[in-house]
Automatic annotation (TrEMBL):
This is Related to N-carbamoyl-D-amino acid hydrolase. PANTHER family: NITRILASE C965.09-RELATED. The lineage of its organism: Eukaryota, Fungi, Dikarya, Ascomycota, Pezizomycotina. Residues 5-307 form the CN hydrolase domain. Coiled coil: none annotated. It comes from the Eukaryota. One of its GO terms (molecular function) is hydrolase activity, acting on carbon-nitrogen (but not peptide) bonds, in linear amides.
């Protein structure tokens, strides 16, 4: 029995420090309506979708900094974000969207939420675990900074997969007593940007039988101070490499965890001089890209996927139950840094 789902990524072109929230939300609604015309049931928006990627800037004014943050408690009801969720509800499309989250005790997280249109509420929340970059700006005044470690706490909600209701007809429910895997409502997991480069998060989701990974991102096209300069590159070469690495990790990890993945970029030249890659894509459990953005602007990419396609990998090559050898993976959870073998 096919378990088909129509999914989309809503890539956003540049958003600037000076961009007005209403304009951004209006662009997001336009994208949502385009996705609706294609029949999408789920639309993924990028990381920190409502604002410029502000962690590239050193912001000393608390008031200014706070203007980039929202609260999960009010994200669906605050006047400057509510229209997006209202539209999703009206169109009957689930959305996942990233934003900078400020908690009541003043902590900051780089967060994404999953909003179920039928339920009319947020049913899952993820906080970015792998925060890239530095706490202090680079000494080089021309460097592209990534001050996520300054503005955010590392995510503390783990890699928690969740089922998405009302997307697939006849999905098996708890009351049916069915124990067989791959029969229920879709199993999804969220990650944010840099998380996609870390196999550990993917595997945590894989171990929960994840079928669709949702990943929004803001990836600089040229940031040698962040990435290293051993092989000097022109901005064009660096951007090509950044897109290559993006697709490499989406394709490779989707394959190794037998799941689909959807990724949505914020793309193009933000704040006058900071180029972000595009490359939003949808990949299959066999690692193939089946939809891909062609621009670095606002763009919908769309695919109809069949979650049944996850079964082959989950039951054969990557049947974790039969083939994993946890007694041999000790260092993975007890060690962070590298311990080399002793010198000869
Ligand atoms: N936003 C974000 O997480 N960006 C990171 C930069 C990595 S720098 C090595 C990314 O993974 O694209």
């Amino acid at each position: 029995m096919p378990r088909t789902l129509k999914v989309a990524a809503a890539q956003l072109g540049p958003i600037h420090l000076t961009s007005k929230r209403e304009e951004v939300v209006s662009r997001m609604i336009t994208l949502l309506r385009s996705a609706s015309k294609l029949g999408a049931q789920l639309v993924l928006f990028p990381e920190t979708a409502f604002t410029t990627f502000f962690p590239r800037h050193l912001i000393n004014s608390q008031e200014e900094l706070d203007s980039y943050f929202d609260s999960t408690d009010t994200i669906t009801s605050a006047p400057n974000t509510k229209p997006l969720f209202d539209e999703a509800k009206t169109l009957g499309i689930d959305i996942s969207v990233g934003f900078a989250e400020r908690t009541t005790d003043g902590k900051g997280y780089n967060t994404s939420v999953y909003f179920s249109a039928k339920k009319g509420e947020i049913i899952a929340k993820y906080r970015k675990v792998h925060l890239p970059g530095t706490k202090e700006p680079f000494a080089n005044p021309d460097a592209v900074n990534q001050l996520e470690k300054r503005y955010f706490e590392p995510g503390n909600l783990g890699f928690t997969a969740f089922r998405t209701p009302d997307l697939i007809p006849d999905a098996a429910k708890k009351r049916s007593g069915i124990k067989e895997h791959g029969k229920g409502d879709p199993i999804m997991g969220m990650m944010i940007c840099n998380d996609r480069r870390w196999a550990e998060g993917w595997r945590c989701y894989g171990l929960q039988g994840v079928e669709v990974i949702l990943c929004g991102y803001n990836t600089a096209g040229f940031a040698p101070d962040l990435w290293g300069t051993r092989k000097p590159m022109t901005p064009k070469e660096a951007e090509r490499d950044a897109v290559f690495h993006h697709k490499l990790v989406m394709q490779g990890n989707s394959y190794m965890n037998s799941c689909f993945s959807i990724s949505a970029a914020k793309a193009g030249m933000e704040d006058g001089k900071y180029d972000l890659i595009g490359g939003s894509c949808i990949t299959t459990p066999e690692g193939h890209v089946i939809a891909e953005a062609k621009t670095k602007d606002d763009e919908i990419i769309f695919a109809e996927i069949d979650l049944e396609d996850c079964r082959q990998g989950k039951e054969k090559t990557f049947d974790f139950d039969r083939h994993r050898r946890v007694d041999q993976y000790g260092p993975i959870t007890v060690q962070t840094g590298v311990v080399e073998p002793e010198l000869l």
